[in-house]
What we know:
The structure is a single chain. The chain is 26% helix and 26% strand. It is an alpha/beta fold and 113 residues long. The protein has a five-stranded mixed β-sheet with strand order 1-2-4-3-5. Helix 2 (73-87) crosses helix 3. The longest helix has 15 residues, at 73-87.
Amino acid sequence: MEFKITVDNHVFHGYEFGKNSLPSLVCLHGMTGDLKSFSGLIEYLINDFHLILLDDPGHGETGPLELEDDYRFSALVNRIYRVIQKITNKPFYILGHSWGGGPCSKFRENSPK
Length: 113
C-alpha cells in the first residue's frame, strides 16, 4: 500500500507490504537509489515481516529537505522515526543499504526505546 506522510511540513513517500500484525522492518536505501532498491527482497521477506519501504529525502518521490542541517543523520533519524510512528507504534527492525546504513547506525542512540 502506497503512503505519503507529512512530518515537519515535509512529505515522505513509501510503501507498506505484508500484514501489519507481523514484526515491522523499515528499509532505508542507499545514495542515488530509492525504495525500489528493496523490491527484489519483498518476496523473501513478506511472509515474516510487515515491510515499510521509504524514499529518503531528495530521492524517489520524496522531495529534498530545505536546509543542509536537515540531512544530518540525527535530524533524519528524528523525522524517519516520526514517519514510522504514524504507521506503527510497535517496536520495529531497521535495515539500511549503503548510505541508508548511516541513519540506521544512529537510530538506536537518537530514538526512543
